């Protein structure tokens, strides 16, 4: 019996009091999302995001004038328009899907472990969430970034934020961190099962395209393992689904700026496939743990339109794993492996 199970009277049975005695915490971290689909909310959020040297590595003196003089004058309005297309009654899909996933993971891991969610950019911040967990008594912290593939621009930046949060603490918790889970068998199985059950409901398209968020090609050349991990996830899914390279393809989306990013680009691939006579194209985005702007707007709307305009019949977006039971089970198993030896 662990300490949280001790009955200490009705007054202390609130969620807060229960959390107060939990010594082990799992901190999920996702990218974050603006507070509202408006240019006013986008500006400070994009400023924080695009000032991160992990994301854009140009020297500050060179990047600062471009960011503040050009990007932050133009992009907030454009991005707000895109966000407005996917914002729903529950708010930003990235936020509410991430919250639902955290809640389901908490239920799966049980009361001995406290599950919290933080955002790398925007609120709730990594630092404030770690402070809160520590106030509640967490002495052991597992950080699980919601990025299956490691990139310095995503996971690496979460590590920076956790390091900065630790600097502010006099007695930081013991720390563990999941670098990636791109080849985790439970994760591959969750992806495969989700695609197969989508096919049971909707029928199979002519091709399956896996579209991952891109990064500048230069980052890969400098040693970022991201592209290689995306290729490995793709190969494992291809093997699991018994498809060949012509049936299951890989591409990279969400290019920003003028540099070359990882290729092949998703928009070019979608148009090429339509031109080659592919009628039904299924697209999944295994790099995103939950649905967000990049899947719901860029793939399910923008690229759907590109495909149709190039002569395709329908691009069908297969939803992210979100809080589905397979993802909850595979992430819980992953967390449990990393929690071994800690009180739970
Ligand atoms: C400009 C450089 C960017 C890099 C490098 C980058 C890498 C990267 N991003 C994700 C995941 C997400 N990105 C999202 C949105 C988004 N990404 C960039 C730029 C870069 N991303 C911008 C400017 C935006 C904001 C929207 C826009 O203005 O276009 C999101 C969605 C957030 C949401 O609120 O829904 C996710 C998720 C990964 C995994 C990654 C590197 C591998
Ligand atoms: Fe991004
Ligand atoms: Fe995008």
TrEMBL record:
Keywords: Cytoplasm, Heme biosynthesis, Iron, Lyase, Metal-binding, Porphyrin biosynthesis
SUPFAM superfamilies membership: Chelatase (SSF53800)
Pathway(s) it belongs to: Porphyrin-containing compound metabolism; protoheme biosynthesis; protoheme from protoporphyrin-IX: step 1/1
Source taxon at top rank: Bacteria
Catalytic activity: heme b + 2 H(+) = protoporphyrin IX + Fe(2+); Fe-coproporphyrin III + 2 H(+) = coproporphyrin III + Fe(2+)
Binding site for Fe(2+): 213, 294
Keyword Cytoplasm: yes
Cytoplasm among keywords: yes
Subcellular location: Cytoplasm
Pfam families per the UniProt record, alphabetical: Ferrochelatase
GO MF terms held by the record: ferrochelatase activity
Similarity-based family: Belongs to the ferrochelatase family.
Listed name of the protein: Ferrochelatase
Organism: Rhodanobacter hydrolyticus
Gene responsible for this protein: hemH
């Amino acid at each position: 019996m662990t300490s949280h199970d001790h009955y200490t009277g009705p007054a202390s049975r609130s969620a807060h009091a229960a959390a107060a005695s939990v010594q082990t915490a799992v901190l999920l971290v996702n990218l974050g999302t603006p507070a509202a689909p408006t240019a006013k909310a986008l500006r400070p959020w994009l400023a924080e995001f695009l000032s991160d040297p992990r994301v854009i590595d140009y020297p500050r003196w060179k990047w600062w004038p471009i960011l503040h003089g050009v990007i932050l004058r133009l992009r907030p309005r454009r991005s707000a328009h895109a966000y407005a297309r996917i914002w729903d009654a529950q708010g930003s899909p990235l936020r509410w899907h991430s919250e639902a996933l955290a809640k389901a993971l908490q239920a799966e891991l049980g009361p001995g472990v406290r599950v919290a969610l933080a955002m790398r950019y925007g609120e709730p911040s990594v630092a404030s969430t770690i402070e809160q967990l520590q106030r509640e008594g967490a002495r052991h912290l597992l950080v699980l970034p919601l990025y299956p593939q490691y990139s310095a621009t995503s996971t690496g930046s979460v590590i920076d934020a956790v390091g900065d949060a630790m600097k502010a603490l006099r007695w930081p918790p013991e720390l563990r961190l999941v670098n990636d889970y791109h080849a985790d068998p439970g994760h591959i199985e969750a992806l495969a099962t989700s695609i197969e059950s989508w096919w049971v409901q909707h029928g199979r398209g002519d091709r399956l395209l896996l579209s991952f968020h891109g990064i500048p090609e230069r980052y890969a050349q400098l040693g970022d393992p991201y592209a290689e991990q995306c290729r490995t996830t793709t190969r494992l899914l291809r093997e699991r689904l018994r498809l060949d390279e012509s049936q299951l393809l890989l591409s990279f989306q969400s290019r920003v700026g003028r540099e070359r990013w990882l290729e092949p680009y998703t928009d070019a691939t979608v148009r090429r496939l339509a031109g080659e006579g592919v009628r039904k194209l299924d697209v999944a985005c295994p790099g995103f743990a939950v649905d967000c702007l990049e899947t719901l707007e860029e793939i399910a709307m923008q690229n759907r339109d590109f495909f149709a305009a190039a002569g395709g019949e329908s691009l069908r977006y297969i939803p992210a794993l979100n809080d589905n039971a397979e993802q909850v089970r595979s992430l819980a198993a992953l967390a449990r492996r990393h929690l071994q030896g800690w009180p739970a």
